[in-house]
Records
---
Amino acid sequence: MPAQTDPQSSALEAVLRRFGRMVRSVGAKHGLDDRDLDEVVQDVRIRLWRARETGTIGALSSSYVYRTARSAILDLMRRRRLPREVLVPGNDSLGVQLVHPDPAPDRSAEESELAATIHQAVDDLIESRRVPVRMHLLGYQSREIAARLGWSGPKTRNLLSRGMADLRERLRARGIGPEGFS
Amino acid sequence: MNDPRLSELYAEALARRADGGRTACPSPEQIFALAERTLPEAERLRLFDHVMACEDCRREYALADAAVRPGRPSRKTLIWAIAATLALVAGVSLVRRTSFDAGRLRGGGNEVILLSPAEAEVLSVPATFAWRPTSAGAEYSFELLGPSGDPVFQVLTSDTIAVLPDTVRLTTGATYRWGIRSRLPDGSESVSSLRSVRAAPR
């Protein structure tokens, strides 16, 4: 890595630090593996340094950093989607897992049935309610759901509240009350 | 069953159903397009439906989303800026300032407080909707949502009332919901709760 002796080098490293912090902050919230985030940040770093050394970029812009990050992430996704037999064991945190471990081997049969019933009830919702309900159950806040779906706040809250009410109704119809199966 | 318990069981079901083959998964480019919000709504919903039910896709989406958010201004911000500019240039003739009686206040904190019409009130057009101002310089997006949840009328204004014109056709007896989103010059947003109203017979 070139030494940080000139203002441009310092600026580039400052941009990379900022980018790394923000990506890690968002990544941590979604439970992303540190190795994936490290790989992306490192890949972006290498690409930006190369671009600078070859004169591809004269000044850093957020759009250039973004395009570089986008390209690095797409490459990572494609690599991780390669057939399993060419993957190196232990390098499987994103996209493909060599083995899907039982998520909870000590769960009772009733718990598993309950989980499957909830999953099916969510699947049975109409799409416009199902998607925000899926996101809500995965921990997204209403504001985050609205931002990602491109919906207004009122529309999101409306469809989410109707979706959750519909889900509870469907669960009740399947014999699932506040304490599980009744 | 409370939401955290539902979430826990739902996550367990998703983990059990993980498809290591990924035969039905969207391409990396499609996942990035989701994060960039460049797809039409129907396509976006269809893909999100898969992505949010697929652990592998969800991780990829989260990574794309992590890159998109630090690097670019959001489409929503741009759309808001364009809409605000157009509204200011053209002048929103549907909206004018009037005095009104404060109704039952709802919400608290930074929430936008709705004034009138009240919950479950019967609505006939043209109708006036009112809310309390949040802060100086705020702009407001008024939305009336139909029974399906889709907006039937929207207007952007710096005022604290909006008039529903009589060109808007409401279904007699149907329940509509209205709400306000407030945006400050620094980009921060606050929203109101949703309030229901019923359409009066014509």
---
Amino acid sequence: MTTAGAGLRSRSRYAAYLVPLGAVGTALLIGALMLVLLDANPIEGFGAMLSGAFGGADALTSTALKATPLLFVGVGITIAFRANVINIGGEGQMVAGGLLATAVALVLPDWPAAVMLPTVLVAGMVGGAIWGAVPGALKAYYGVNEILSTIMLNVVAVQLMNFLLRGPMIDPGEIERGTRIPQTQRLQEGADLPLLFGSGRLHIGPVIAALVAVAAYILLWRTPVGFRVRAVGQSTDAARYAGIPVKRTIVLALTLAGAMGGLAGAVLVFGSESHRMVTDGSTAGFTGNAGFNGIVAALFGGLHPLWAIPASFLFGGLLVGGNALQRAVQVPTALILALNGLVVVFVVASDRYRRTLGERASQAETAAKLAAQAAAEAPP
Amino acid sequence: MRTRPLPWAAMVLAFVMLAVACGGDDDAADTTAATDGATTTAAAADETFRIAVVAPSAVNDLAFTQSIVDAVNVVAAERGNTEVDITDGTFVVEDAAAAIRDYASQGYDLVIAHGSQYGGSLEEIAPDFPEVAFAWGTAADTFGLPNVFAYEAASDQGGYVMGVMAAALSESKLIGIVGPIEVGDAKLYVDGFKAGAESNDSGVTVNVNYTGSFSDVALASEAAKAHVAAGADVMSGTAQMVVGAVSVANDEGVLWFGTQANQSSLGDIVVASQVYKWEVVLREMLTAIDGGTLGGTTYEINLANGGEVIEYNANFDLPADVAQLAEDAIAGIADGSMSTGQ
Amino acid sequence: MSELLTKAVLVATIAGGIRLAVPLLLASLGETFGQRSGVLNLGVDGIMLLGAFGGYYAVLESGDVWLGLAAGIVIGMLLGVVSALISVTLLAEQGISGIGVYLFGLGLSDLLFQRLVGTPTPIPKFPKLDIPGLSDIPVIGETLFQFSLIVYVAVALVPISIFVINRTTFGMKVRSVGENPEAADSLGVSITRVRWITVTIGGTLAGVAGAALAIDLGIFQQNLTNAQGFIAIALVYFGAWRPLGVMTGALLYGLVNSLVLQFKTLGIIPQSWSDIAAMAPALITILALVVVARRFRQPAALTKPFTRGT
């Protein structure tokens, strides 16, 4: 192969990875400027951010736990995206999944963990799946745009959560005490997510998420179902011509994405410190905006389920680190939120550039191969 | 597009190594930047008394969070040699749990979890840090743990007093209340206010509207307008969204009674506010901590111990007879001869 | 129920519904332009929040409500330009870049408010407009003609928008770019320029909506809009990308909210059902959508970034 071709290939390929990092870096630079304007020390701040996210077992645990819902949602996004459907209903799907899983745990008797745990997780998936299937069906059969229906269902989900947690599902102890905090009772121990090392805070949630990501990869590229999803995403006409049921596949894609979101919600509830579902009245109070940040994590990972794993971890670190920064230099939490937004904007805005670089890299590789072939076949 | 795992793994590894390297510096005595109005200290780390506050809304919400932040700053200034660190706007419960845990692990002396929804998490975190004192508000449960204080407000008391005043001042005999959600502190206040208003057989009707949100200002504004349209000439309410309702009161010349913080700055139609002076119980907590007791007590601010104070708006001309009714009510509740019925 | 039918309450309900609808209408009309040309901007709420703070701050410092409105216009335009840069030039994934703008706007508006203002301080509001003759008509006059100027401006923008979209060359370009950018491009229409303009219009109107909200309420607070910006986006779909439909949607949403409020004030809805009642606007919108969607299609190129040769 020619040296020029090799040079272009390796440069472009590594540049493609550096682009999202560069985007984050730029956003953080602006953040540093804002810190200075607020009389805070950016070096101290970012130092705290790094150590808060990755500097030790405790920090890594926090990051892994924060990354878990991001990964679930991100995998769901990836599946939906392969069918060319945008799912921004992650917030509502997480709430719906959390609610159904919690309800199941409340209603069922105290079963052993081996039975209870899968049950509640499946319940979470079902809850989220419903919240994904409805916009899916509305899109496929009624032509209702999924962005609209998912936004509306996000609103409905939070009101439903408030109603249930303040009413039928409230901790009876709260009514006795008269405090009426909108939370459930401590859910049965059989549903607790087991801890990874017997003690501490790290539960198996991140492991489940990673396994789900692998499962999604297998689903999309190694099963007929996945093939149908990807075919519909490439071209609905071609897929229809090939006999693929387009409408059902769209519904399926959104249902799967919803199931992922629901699973994230269930894991949040049963992995939480308090082992109960509690609300402050907003979706973000429960989800921590994972429904939106999960989309960014998915983009960060190039919309590929396997690379969503390290991408979610890094993004989770960014979020955990941001909170650590707030505590260390005592800036208003609002700054961290604005920073979160900046990172999202920069990563998403630079995405095209990253893809162009990636395409150029594979084009260069193809060109190099052809050149090599031509050289091999050329008459001496 | 084919991607290789190596760059990703390398990046993650690089971050971890970098972080651990930087993390080493954190063990040395940290001087953190001052927060609004807090006093910081240059003394050695072990002499400084460190207080952390985790709260769900903004420090300047003229309501729930502001009340505790103001109180902590007052106590810190009195005590001297005290560091105050605040994490506000933490409505994500898991993030709040992480913040509480982090402050505790950094060896703060008192970590205040100012939000009812934080209770479940605090119950799990406190046992892990037996040397740290935790305070949970507004609540009455210390979970039987030796290092958890609880604090709450008898907001019905001040509510009752202001309800009495409201009934006396209302000419249309219709009072409107704009509430967030019928829970906890809000419900207590509204019920007390209603009881006070109806106490004198003055024939007053009190309409209560819980808008369903702590933060929807536009909805609060419309709820207030609905009350005014129905004929109310005195209103009250609780939670940070009431600023919308007070604005309407200003426009329509309707009187307003506030709670949790002094709302006189919002307009001359504000008659009085029930101000939470959490410093009253914070002082007791600090004394207990100094004496080695890190928890186990539930505190209440009320009219009797000065934790709740009715502050009148200097710009409002309160008739002397109404002021007398209020004073009588305050005295009555304080010495127990009057009951708010809650 | 009979209390609902008194004149005063009916007037208050309808007037309240219209007031609640105005910020939605303004933001929604702006988003309509953008979406009609094929660009989805999910950052509307963030722009509204920054416009709201800017307007609030301007009025707080100057005492002039019109300066506040101007601030809203400027900030909205600025953020509209930024959104256009991200979505049109950088061809970012539209569904998600907007969320970033939303988070940024939410955080920055709160941050600025905390640092520059501190405690919520009241500001003067828009003066109520008294239209000689019309305002005095009993019932109808009170209901429809005692608003501030901004309400009339918002309503007036509807026929203006209809005119621009359907009867001007620019409007034709907007529509063609949204339906078939390749064809438009081959006819010499600059996709980039058209989309830049529509997205900027969208941002500007979102900024105005936010400023109008803050000045109308006479106060600012963190998250003042309470995610209304997302409702505004949804209303564009509800209105089938037509200004009249958008106005219908905004009014419907506002009126349902206002009605629920009245029911609660009058005690018709018990407090324990208030959360279910709060779902009503969202559910009604979805139901109405199913009806509407059968008859109208979305702009074919919506959310698809355009590059020549794709």
